[in-house]
Amino acid sequence: MEPVNIGLLGLGTVGGGTVTVLTRNAAEIARRAGRGIRIAHAAARSYDADTIAGLGEIGRIGDDAFAVVDDPDVDIVVELIGGYSPARELVLQAIANGKHVVTANKALIALHGNEIFAAAQARGVTVAFEAAVAGGIPIIKALREGLAANHIDWIAGIINGTGNFILTEMRDKGRDFADVLAEAQALGYAEADPTFDVEGIDAAHKLTILGSLAFGIPLQFDKTFTEGISGIEAQDVAYAGELGYRIKHLGIARRAANGIELRVHPTLIPHRRLIANVDGVMNAVLVKGDAVGPTLYYGAGAGALPTASAVVADVVDVVRLLTTDPTNRVPHLAFQPTELADTPVLAMDDVETAYYLRLTALDRPGVMAGIAGILGEEGISIEAIQQKEPAPGETHVPLIMLTHRVRESGMNRALARIEALDAVQGETVRIRMETLAG
Ligand SMILES: NC(=O)c1ccc[n+]([C@@H]2O[C@H](COP(=O)([O-])OP(=O)(O)OC[C@H]3O[C@@H](n4cnc5c(N)ncnc54)[C@H](O)[C@@H]3O)[C@@H](O)[C@H]2O)c1
Ligand SMILES: N[C@@H](CCO)C(=O)O
Ligand code: NA
């Protein structure tokens, strides 16, 4: 049988890795897919022809991505450019041309996925996006297919490799934030705009996708609460460690009584949890299903070959379904498109979590009692409290508190009152806590 023709958009970290994997494992991939797969036409704005030639065989290379999408010889378009535009226009045009699409672009899917999937559905083609979430880990496949029997209770994931790499290096080696970020960029892990990694936007893109797959709701990136790691200080990492916790940047999607929580933020988690020990660029996603219980998926979340592993697996999937009736395919968002629910995504004020708090307070009798009194009046109970030694010559001391679960709005009220006390200095550091049990 004739090989299937790929049109490849982008020849950077992931594009280059995809050429390598398709070439290196060509024979095995063809045995799995049932057909050979060749890169018929590729485009990139900038590339080094010699480097690309060293990776594998490409029929034709140019700099016009639309020429690839309009090439009648191309059966499947693989979008590895990134960003919102022109990725959106390219993908929509590929769909209009009746071509299947594979993409690693979580920004595109999180923001424009509803539009893209509707267009694909109408045209009878598939858009596959395994590489968009947790790189090489087949988490999309797990949620859409492997866990299809379950009512999903919650998901908690380390889903940004760059952020996890930074936190790990800061904790283990005391390295400087900017220095570790520069290394992550040099290794090809970071987004084109690294603030997407550091400020949690990339993780929020991925969590938006996971939330839809888990709960059968439309993609709603604008409702996903997003807090990054740029405010994490070394002393909080150390204090959390003394109390038996690690700080991880988590994406959490949870079904609560009154709606769905979608939130990305630094989180204290008990250090003995497997996921607390996922370090460096590795990602992990913990999924709690009612039938299966907790399941954990672990692997490389970024990098050329791990991401290409997911891209090529999607290509194989698409080749296998070239002969499948469109109505029998795995739905883009795991649930049939007519069955998506309008369950609300909760505002952060309505979300309940436990807290780690660090206040800076005057070292004087009665101060602690005053703070505890305000927390009590707002219905917040304290699980642990520690007063640290003052630095030499300092009149104020760090006070560390762990609270039980409380609604975010109650914590906001309590902290506003506490920060207004004369004996309390500056802003409180607050980091949410999760046990990730049950
Ligand atoms: N790097 C990773 O580890 C990783 C992991 C998972 C997903 N992703 C996603 O994969 C995608 C690609 O990431 P990357 O790290 O390979 O990026 P990259 O910057 O290394 O490569 C981008 C490629 O696209 C080309 N390009 C940019 N604009 C273009 C245009 N208008 N027309 C034609 N070509 C154009 C560039 O020349 C380059 O070859 C992004 O969506 C990213 O979020 C990356
Ligand atoms: N910048 C992303 C790439 C993988 O999606 C990360 O560091 O996780
Ligand atoms: Na994946």
From TrEMBL:
Catalyses which reaction(s): L-homoserine + NAD(+) = L-aspartate 4-semialdehyde + NADH + H(+)
**MF terms per GO, please?**
homoserine dehydrogenase activity
- Top-level taxon of the source organism: Bacteria
What organism does the record attribute this protein to? Thiohalocapsa halophila
Question: Thylakoid: present as a keyword of the record?
Answer: no
Which keywords does the record carry?
Amino-acid biosynthesis, Methionine biosynthesis, NADP, Oxidoreductase, Threonine biosynthesis
ACT domain boundaries = 356-434
Protein name listed in UniProt: Homoserine dehydrogenase
InterPro entries in the record, alphabetically? ACT-like_dom_sf (IPR045865), ACT_dom (IPR002912), Asp/hSer_DH_NAD-bd (IPR005106), HDH (IPR016204), HDH_cat (IPR001342), HDH_CS (IPR019811), NAD(P)-bd_dom_sf (IPR036291)
Pathway, per record? Amino-acid biosynthesis; L-methionine biosynthesis via de novo pathway; L-homoserine from L-aspartate: step 3/3; Amino-acid biosynthesis; L-threonine biosynthesis; L-threonine from L-aspartate: step 3/5
Q: Which family does it belong to?
A: Belongs to the homoserine dehydrogenase family.
